[in-house]
Amino acid sequence: MSDPAPQADGNPAAFPLTTKDLTNLARPDSPFKPHTWSDLAHIIATNDLKFLRRQPSDLKRYDQWTRETKETYGTTTNYICKERLAWTPLPIISNGEDAGPVFEVQNPIPFADGRDYKILRNDWPYGLEKGVEHLVVWLKNRLPVDSASEIGDLEAGAREAVEGFVRRTFVRRLERAGVGGAGEKVMWFRNWTGLQSVRGIDHVHILVRDVPAEVLEGWTGETP
């Protein structure tokens, strides 16, 4: 894997940046337009995830936070394990370019046991229009990646497993809450391996629109 691209100021970034990110870093916030729901739907449907962007000032703060976190915890993965997930990895060393911690699981099948995943708010969401919330599902299990994919995309069976989980956990919860058009208020994606700023722990991004605060809190256990 190549080194992270340099920032607009010439310093290497703390995580991989797309060409869109580099352009945004050199701009003020004022021209930035948040992603609309229809824009997000198009990006996810076409799998053009490289077009997801953060507001320039948020991207700069995220980069700085990542640098400081790595200085304190060694890696962002260590921080997330300790401070956000409260998961203790097993004393096992996993190999490979994107090796990460190994956890004891209750069920080897992803999403089969609620103790093997955790839903949290994204601390550093993309630039989204008002009413859109960004959540992350962190997994102790690994989601199988398509060996034929040059970008590290999920294999078909893994995508089906995520789809089923999203329907059960998010869409049906909205239906029980009486939210109209529940199926149109939830989308998900998993960044390709090359786009992930946090590697080592598998995670899926969830986007929801116009969801009551109590439902969000029920999913994450966190208040805004």
Rounded Rg: 17 Å
The percent range for helix content is 25-40%
Name the beta content range: 5-15%
The residue-averaged pLDDT reads: 87
Strand tally is 4
Main sheet: strand order: 1-2-4-3
Distance between the termini: 36 Å
- Tell me the number of helical segments per DSSP (H or I, 4 or more residues long): 6
Largest sheet: 4 strands, antiparallel
Notes on the structure:
By secondary structure, this protein is of the alpha+beta class. It is 33% helix and 11% strand. The chain has 6 helices and 4 strands, in the order H-H-H-H-E-E-H-E-E-H. A 4-stranded antiparallel sheet has the order 1-2-4-3, sandwiched between helices. Helix 3 crosses helix 4 (76-85).
Describe this structure in a few short sentences.
Helices cover 33% and strands 11% of the residues. With 224 residues, the protein is α+β, with helices and mostly antiparallel strands. The protein has a four-stranded antiparallel beta sheet, sandwiched between helices.
Give the topology:
Layout: H1 19-25, H2 37-45, H3 56-73, H4 76-85, E1 117-121, E2 132-139, H5 156-176, E3 186-189, E4 203-209, H6 213-220
Antiparallel strand pairs: 1-2, 2-4, 3-4
List keywords for this structure.
alpha+beta; 4 strands; disordered N terminus; 4-stranded antiparallel β-sheet; 224 residues
